Amino acid sequence: MNERQASPKNAQARIGKQIMLPWSKAFEIAMRSIRVRFWRSMITMSSIVLAIAFLMSIWTSTAFVAALALGPQRDLDALKAKLGVVRAALEGRTGARPKPALERDYAADLAAARARTREAIAEKQKAIDSATSDEARKLTGDIQALEAELAPGKALQLLHDYLAERRRETEDRKGRLDAILQQERAGAAADAQAPESPKEAPKADEPPPARASASGLGTFLSYMTATDKWLAVLALLVCFVGIVNAMFMTVQERFREIGTMKCLGALDAFIVKIFLIESTALGFVGTVFGIFVGMALSVVRQWFVYGWATFTYFPIGSVAIAALLAAFVGLVLSAGAAILPARNAARMEPVEAMRIEE
Amino acid sequence: MQQNIVRTRDVTKVYKMGKIEVHALRGVDLEIRAGEYISIMGPSGSGKSTLFNMVGGLDKPTAGKVYIEEVDVAQLDAYELAWLRCRKIGYIFQTFNIIPVMTALENVTLPMVFAGLTTDEARDKGVELLKRVGLGDRFSHKPFELSGGQQQRVAIARAMANDPSLILADEPTGNLDIKTGTEIIGLLQQLNQENGVTIISATHDHKMLSASNRIVWIRDGKVDRIEERRDLKIEVGTIEGEA
User: Fold this and answer.
1) How confident is the model over B160-198, as pLDDT tens digits?
2) What pLDDT, in 10s, does the model give residues B103-150?
3) Looking at the complex, does the CB of residue B144 fall below 8 Å from at least one CB of chain A?
4) pTM for this structure?
């Protein structure tokens, strides 16, 4: 029934293979203990949610501001390029591209231009029904002029006019956005000038000027003001301390359980695993929630300030990168916060389990 | 042929609390044969628990040696100690110490998982053990759904999980009433006789006396006397109406 070890050396040969450190068991135990202390786990998790939400909202806001600063400029540049090409073709300059080629390349814009003209025609036709005879005559004249524009030969002219109009619209929008952005930057700069620690190097509080080549991805980090950076670091520190505290308390409560498991043959590494899994699982779920909450809050705020322009220049790439970074930060935070308490738990003597002394 | 399963040579333990030194054990020599049922008894502060910890591999002596199956416990590293606790020794506590978030069956199979049994093997063996201790219909119950006596039975089943050669019981009946305590002692005796497991218990309970082969009385960190059961005259009264 029992194998008697002949000597410690024999045991040593077999020991490495025989002490099992089953991850699945550690996972099970960790999940159970979260469930048993559900509401306290939720409270611990909420600190992660808040810290990550804060971080994410700052990053999303800066991503938006960056996109809004860079986006219209990019649109304008594209439109100018197209306009230039079309104008050259219309003026018959040498080296200009042939009309059919242009019509093909800018088919989407052409289609949009035609659609706009047809809409205008439709509107005027509706107006005719309720117009006086004089107005009706004028409207009919307008309609005929518009229909002439739709003639095949006039395609390039139509395109040119459309692009020019788009350019005007975009310049308008850019003008409006620039005004709001200037206000925001002035406000942020004022905040940043407010009592800062003397060892803070004179960083540029103004975001760097819009670079036409900048894709927006990753440049958003450079749009963070110094205050934002400091606040984010602070929020993460507070969260870290909160988790460490909560984990220490959990370890303290479970001294008997830990001691018992060690009496059953659990290695220190197993105990560490249980607590690391617990903390990381909470951290993961909390981080995911935090990312969504942060994004949502930021989008709502941007919408209030900038209106629908926020969705025109939605920086998906930057936001995705921000989300990944925030997830990484959250996981590292929650795993790191568990290290000290877990090692504390692992060093507990099994004798602790038998602490009922007379 | 009787080997010594536990042997101590002049075991001494001194606790340093600041400037004060507490001599918990002052040179204890003990030999426990395989298959014995031995009780360590003594008043509070006599070093009973300290000796118990030594013998069970839970603590290392300041001086002297403790041999479990002729292996010096002080020479073992963490892996080897864990192996010992997993495979060779089963523990039973006064406070039962069953993990509250797991069912009875999961508690019993936990040491088997550490020993490397597959889930199926572990479950089958666990059910067997629980039937053996009389809890065949209770294996999916959580500890808070079990009475004290039943929890202690689960603890005993868990202690037997990996077929240990040694079971250490620290006041197993301390939190139980007279009737349940007697049942538990009976169960331990049964295990001792049928499976040949050596049982070492540290206890105040005089009901344990009739079940033990030998009794070691400790006083002031030294062995006061060792008695064989046949030399004892035991009269333990029972109350009318209890078993």
Assistant:
1) 999 999 999 988 888 898 899 999 999 999 999 998 899
2) 999 999 999 988 888 889 889 999 999 999 988 888 889 889 999 899
3) no
4) 0.76
The count of structural domains within chain B is 1
**pLDDT band per the 50, 70, 90 thresholds, residue B238:** low
Q: What ipTM describes this predicted complex? A: 0.85
Helix (H, G, I), strand (E, B) or coil at B68: strand
Residue B236 lies in a domain: no
Count the residues in chain A. Answer: 358
Q: Is residue B108 part of a domain?
A: yes
In sequence order, which residues have a C-beta less than 8 Å from that of residue B114 and are 6 or more positions away?
A19, A20, A264, A265, A266, A270, B82, B86
Using an 8 Å CB-CB cutoff, list residues of chain A that contact chain B. 1-2, 4-5, 7-8, 11-12, 15-16, 18-20, 22, 25, 29, 32-33, 35-36, 256-257, 259-268, 270, 349-351, 353-354, 356-358
Rounded CA separation B240/B38 (Å) = 29
B240 assigned to some structural domain: no
B241 within some domain: no
Q: Determine, for residues A257 and B99 on separate chains, whether the beta-carbon distance falls below 8 Å.
A: yes
Q: Which two tokens stand for residue B165?
A: 């050669």
